[in-house]
Amino acid sequence: MLPMKDFFRSDEIVNLTEEIVYNELQALIGRAEIEFCQCDKCLFDIVCVVLNKIPSLYSSSIADRTYPSAEFKAEYDRLKLLAAEEIPRAIEQIKDRLHH
Fold first, then answer.
1. Structural domain that includes position 78
2. pTM
3. Which pLDDT tens digit goes with each residue over 18-49?
4. How far apart are CA 5 and CA 76, in angstroms?
5. Beta strands in the chain (DSSP E)
6. How far is 53 from 84, CA to CA, in rounded Å?
7. Largest CA distance in the chain
8. Residues 54-74: pLDDT tens digits?
9. Which site from 10, 23, 49, 98 is most exposed, i.e. has the minimal number of CB atoms within 10 Å?
10. How many domains does the chain contain in total?
């Protein structure tokens, strides 16, 4: 069997939760509401903590992402809220255990 990277050569399978978390984290940084280390290591740790706390939402179709059903859109919006709730918690967790 082919290695996973060779088997899934296209970028059709997308974890939208990753996008959501990155976008929500960038928005929080832009608002400068919370003071925290923003080095790559800390940002990666924050993203990993949040991704492990909230459900994944995968899509294998550009059509689903471009023209989402009402159910898909509702799930996407729910995950945005969850990410916005979990990111500050993850920041506090990482602040307590810096890896640099």
1. 4-96
2. 0.84
3. 999 999 999 999 999 899 999 999 999 999 99
4. 26
5. 14-15, 58-59
6. 12
7. 48
8. 999 999 888 888 898 999 999
9. 10
10. 1
